Amino acid sequence: MNEFYQKDIISIKDYTKDQLETIFASTDKIMQLNPQDRREICKGKTLGYLFYEPSTRTRLSFDSAMASIGGNSLGISDISSSSTQKGESLADTVRIMSIYSDVLVLRNPLDGSSRFAAEISDKPVINAGSGTEEHPTQAIQDLFTIKKEKKKIDGLKIGIVGDLKYGRTVYSLLYGLGNYDVDVRLISPESLRIRSDSTYEIKKRIDFTETTDIEDHLDELDVLYVTRIQKERFPDEEEYLKVKGSYVVGLDMLKRMKDDAIILHPLPRIDEIAADVDTTKNAKYFEQAEYGKHTRAALLGMILNENGF
Amino acid sequence: MNEFYQKDIISIKDYTKDQLETIFASTDKIMQLNPQDRREICKGKTLGYLFYEPSTRTRLSFDSAMASIGGNSLGISDISSSSTQKGESLADTVRIMSIYSDVLVLRNPLDGSSRFAAEISDKPVINAGSGTEEHPTQAIQDLFTIKKEKKKIDGLKIGIVGDLKYGRTVYSLLYGLGNYDVDVRLISPESLRIRSDSTYEIKKRIDFTETTDIEDHLDELDVLYVTRIQKERFPDEEEYLKVKGSYVVGLDMLKRMKDDAIILHPLPRIDEIAADVDTTKNAKYFEQAEYGKHTRAALLGMILNENGF
Amino acid sequence: MNEFYQKDIISIKDYTKDQLETIFASTDKIMQLNPQDRREICKGKTLGYLFYEPSTRTRLSFDSAMASIGGNSLGISDISSSSTQKGESLADTVRIMSIYSDVLVLRNPLDGSSRFAAEISDKPVINAGSGTEEHPTQAIQDLFTIKKEKKKIDGLKIGIVGDLKYGRTVYSLLYGLGNYDVDVRLISPESLRIRSDSTYEIKKRIDFTETTDIEDHLDELDVLYVTRIQKERFPDEEEYLKVKGSYVVGLDMLKRMKDDAIILHPLPRIDEIAADVDTTKNAKYFEQAEYGKHTRAALLGMILNENGF
Lengths: 309, 309, 309
Hints:
Chain A is α/β, with parallel strands linked by helices. Chain A has helices spanning 17-32, 35-38, 56-68, 90-100, 113-120, 136-150, 168-177, 196-205, 237-247, 251-255, 285-304; strands spanning 46-51, 72-76, 103-108, 125-130, 157-161, 183-187, 207-211, 223-226, 262-264.
């Protein structure tokens, strides 16, 4: 029996390096299977999604992952605008959804919502984003992308640039990187630095330096992970425009980077990366999206299929 | 050939006790099948849903039921907000949807809408709630739950509490119970009593007494069916708060009931039943939701599969 | 290998008469297959839809077509109201969607959007309506309907009535008819005449005459294709009411037509065709909707299945 069978995916912090490597190996295996064999893995199984925050991208990634292994998906893509919600508690909604499906995928703005749901649900729960820090399947997707494209994670110099304060993606990635021997550079405007209440725990796992100037480390980086900077985060439009401009990744910036450095982005992108970067060999964000489908398929397969695949 | 093959489900009033028992037997059978055999029943069949009132719960119950027997679902989950509606008649929408699917599931606020749709449609129509009185698959789900949990329906004392005026669930359940020898107690505030234009017909089928005081019959009941009381129904907030409080089912109330009484609720629940009741052996509303999936799977299977299963 | 394998469907203008006849033959074949064999054609394939304009009808036609040949569908049914859109470019959305699916179905208000998407996408793109002129699968559906119901297209007298200015359906049909030797009568109020910038190109392919009076040609027509006239198009309500009334197809009008003339409509219909026409042998608009499902299934099958079927 595989160790992930019927287990929840709540936090990236719950995973050891060995477990992550097992997931990566399963993802490699699923990518090599022919489509017909792949569809046997979760044939006839049903994924139930509950999105309290809409996230079309994450939902479709799960939906297509489930379809690729022979399962189907149903659920509620935007509960907040669902007129049927009528004040029902999260607990009741989770209970009912666990009747309708074999695995639950939950996106909820509250910290701890997925762990709470997992305690209530008869079926395994996958956290598809909760609270300020947790988006474990995104972190697994990101780590797999680095491993796949750089052939290793240990020993890499990784820059993370943009809004490091509000994006749960960044925190999950940092916790995940904590399993590896990496050198991390956090690059953000002063007002969007990583939250100090989180850095204490992250620092126990990983060495990082902080800077506001993306040029500081550019020539050393093996990986540059770019995130969106949202205008709404700034009290002052002038500051926003200044910051925004200085962090846009373009061909100029790419020239100052290592020849084999890779650019990642959790997407959707607005204009943090110039379109002409897309066709360079460094741009790996669309591969990253594709790996997201396959890592999710591997996770679903291990959770729902006793013998793995 | 099974007698439900290609037949519509329009009103619970159309069913005899024998037919209900046949449906219950089929539901039992479907629950015992292994998932693989179950998925052969409607393999490749398509359910088309048309919801003129949104009802995520009912839609997902049908969707998951159809998935469990190997079929798939497509349709419109909220026609009123569909910008494509453009004033098309119900008749035309039904005609088109019957081209796209093997069975139609219709939720519509108008009395008679499902019977009208059934006359027009080439494919069988299932009423998923219409007008003030009809929700036949909910009634079948409720009756099956009582049968399953109490091993019989005849001879039971059944209390129905809450808003008895506006909920179509209550009327359908009463018409369904009319096939059995039961003793029904209707418990509601004065302003939410069962409508007198319906009681004439119900009285021909079933004996019931009415009360405003839930304590009157509590110690005698085998089944307590709880429904939501909506604030909007009251002209006066004070009366609402008074009524609401007096009908909340909690552990205290449970102590005054028979040891083997069961509590049902069509869900979603707001606060009509206290959360600490959930873990008692009397709480059967989540089982009820699960039986809803299986009764619907049985109905779909009998309608779409000539030989039954 | 069939010639449509992995090819895009962008414009009806790209198709020769021979290619249209191949599609019609495939549609005939798919209609004759038993459901089980039909579901083998695209077993396990995924259709990804991206609707920048909502069109429930077109989306469900594709969805049911894909289901009938064993595939499944996922996507975004109304991107403009999707809160996750967050300003992402069409290019990025198309790239991501082509990761999640085997074929893309795109509805977008801009001319050229589908051709642009096809250049970007790794997967074939089907135009489900773009700009002012293009709706190629609707045109194929319409041409197939005429062929099926009249046993030929060449030599027919075809009237097209209603709003000829704004409906992309009309333009696509005219371009498609350009492959055949037909006599076309365009019937519309003065203010809703076909756009002169398009007539130049259409005239190179097809002979048509224009009139405002539907009575002019009624007794000669083999096919009357009716389209909706939308009130919003008129500056003056009085003119709208006058026009609307004069173009309603009713039993009276039918009596003045050939006994074997057929009435078509792309649907949804409001009141351009009186309900009592529905039951006549001339009404073929519901058959047209059904053929729409089968022509789309044939197209999807040829695009996704190397050996055709």
